[in-house]
Amino acid sequence: MRVFTVDEVKAHSKPDDLFIIVHGDVYDVTEFKNEHPGGKKSTFTLTTITPSRDVTPGLACWGAMSFLERVAGKDATVQFQKYHKDSVLDKYRGKLQVGSLEGKAPPAPKPEPPKPAPAAPAKSVAVSAKTEEDATALEPYGDMIPYGDPAWYQSIVDQRSQYHSPYYNATHAALRKEVREWITSEIEPYVTEWDEARHVPDTIFQQMGQRGYLAGLLGVKFPVEFTDRRVASVPAEQWDHFHELILTDELSRTGSGGFVWSQIGGYGIGLPPVIRFAQEPLKQRILPGLLAGEKRICLAITEPDAGSDVANLTCEAKLTPDGKHYIVNGEKKWITNGIWADYFTTAVRTGGPGMGGVSVLLIEKTHPGVSVRKMDCQGVWSSGTTYITFEDVKVPVENLVGKENQGFKVIMTNFNHERLGIVIQCNRFSRVLYEESMKYANKRKTFGKKLVEHPVIRMKLAQMARQVEACHNWLENIVYQCEKMGTTESMLRLGGAIAGLKAQATTTFEFCAREAAQIFGGLAYTRGGQGAKVERLYRDVKAYMIPGGSLEIMEDLSIRQAMRVHKALGMKL
Ligand code: HEM
Fold it and tell me: Which residues form the Cytochrome b5 heme-binding domain (predicted)?
């Protein structure tokens, strides 16, 4: 790349030869000015700027010249920072940058690809002795915005005082770095585009497989028996529930429910029942392709008339007289990823009414009689929400997942994992809303002050942060219990608490979306731009508060289920 002097850049200040400087880098925006959303020359007029209530004399009004022409040949860093997030450049740098100013510090070296974590420390979780805890003291990580990342990401810079946590070791720190670097460089700059297109390129899901991430998202030990894919920074034998928490949390930093669900929405709930309950030959046949990201799966439970009330589903599966097949007829609605799925982990009625007549079948796209159509929903646009019809679909009995008429147990076992996934995503989305608000409030000025200098805005930030932190601490506690208890014990013991946590996380998410939108004002009301994440997440809230057990069902269950368990434990009322 060329090195420029300030005077050399100044020479490119005409509409047909237009350079600008941002953060010491030189950009040729001659062509780009015509597609720049900040006002094309031909359309930019006074009316394109809508004054907010803060109608101060400083209101930008630059006549019939586009923003880029106004700063032609100059250093436009200040103006750039006013209207964009720096991450905009991640997307356009490759296309527009022609060089840098002389004397600009060389760019930081590209991060090395993650190396496998060192064998020590081999302990997975729970360090109580102080000496051991100090031995695993971790480097600080992230932007160091208070509450902008989970507490264990922080530490005082001189390393004398670490932010202590009993849950995390060096492999967890390595994983968060590995995932964040991938998300920042290859995902985040394109998420808005993909959301608008309602599709994430298939290559991203394939990368999820290649990087070993898919194999690590099943709520079980890393399934080495079915795949040779590995996560670069975590030895498979050390993989635990906290790695899964970090992976989902960092994926959710994209601030798009659509993106997260496009990757793990169907997979994270459709595959665990198969891996836990399917017959061995079926697992051997389908798991390698799924774990590699070459095939896709979804969970088909909800119907036009049965949502949280799962026991009343009506999609029926009748055994053929020769006992070799089920014939499936019925419909499924709001099925995440259904449109792309090769396999459908489907709840069907094989017996009488109620939960005792439900079974789970793995239906395959290749089975004649399966048809899918995409649904148009309020949020999670790139997640592929689907309406599915099964018409006389002939499914081999070998595809039964669990035992006939005992499907309710399969579904129940799945719920904790599904809901924890929802909690992790919701809480990071809430954190993103808070983090975006904090950054914006420190930049945007109204009535002569930064937003953050107005007590009413600080109050909003405080209310967001305390709810996010409370939720995260409860989440870590529950994940720790999952790590220690077996699947059956955690299903029974934790069902109530996880339901309560889902209620907590979704209401926190809804609150943070509302407050962030108020802080961003008009920018959160328009799609794209600085408020893109806020506008999008506001639309995504209900996709988290209704499915996977609605808020009302979750709150009720958090008491009912807990009472049932504690009765067995000898509760004294
Ligand atoms: C390499 C330089 C630049 C690039 C790549 C760029 C790119 C963009 C993009 C993608 C948007 C859409 C919103 C978003 O995604 O944030 C935007 C909006 C905008 N840009 Fe730029 N821009 C550049 C420089 C500038 C400069 C120097 C100015 C001002 C002098 C400016 C003023 C604006 C304005 C006013 C908007 C509209 C903001 C809004 O709707 O709230 N841009 N720009």
Answer: 1-102
Q: What is the pLDDT, as a whole number, of residue 487?
A: 78
- Cα–ligand 1 centroid distance for 381 (angstroms): 25
Q: Please report the atom of ligand 1 found closest to the CA of residue 71.
A: 30
Mutate-to-test residue for ligand 1 from 19, 33, 36, 523, highest number of ligand atoms within 8 A of CB: 36
The per-residue b/e assignment along 284-315, b for 16 or more CB within 10 angstroms, e otherwise, is eebbbbbbbbebbbbbbbbbeebbeebeebeb
Pairing of strands 343-349, 400-401: unpaired
SS3 of the chain: helix, strand, coil, percent, to 5:
50, 15, 35
Q: What is the DSSP letter of 370?
A: E
| Across 495-505, average pLDDT | 97
Reported pTM: 0.86
Note the maximum CA span of the chain: 87
Ligand 1 centre to CA of 28 (Å) is: 14
Complex-level ipTM beyond the 0.85 threshold: yes
**CB under 8 Å to 481, separation ≥6 — which residues?**
490, 493, 494
Decide whether any atom of ligand 1 lies within 6 Å of the 369 Cβ. no
Tell whether ligand 1 has an atom less than 6 A from the beta carbon of residue 22.
yes
Rounded mean pLDDT, 531-553:
96
Q: How confident is the model at residue 39 (pLDDT cuts 50, 70, 90)?
A: low
Same domain, 421 and 452: yes
67 C-alpha to center of ligand 1: Å? 8
Does residue 524 have its Cβ closer than 6 Å to ligand 1?
Answer: no
Q: What is the pLDDT of residues 331-355, one digit of tens each?
A: 999 999 999 999 999 999 999 999 9
Same domain, 362 and 443: no
Minimum-distance ligand 1 atom for the alpha carbon of 92: 5
Range of the domain at 306: 297-408
Which residue's CA lies nearest to atom 21 of ligand 1? 38
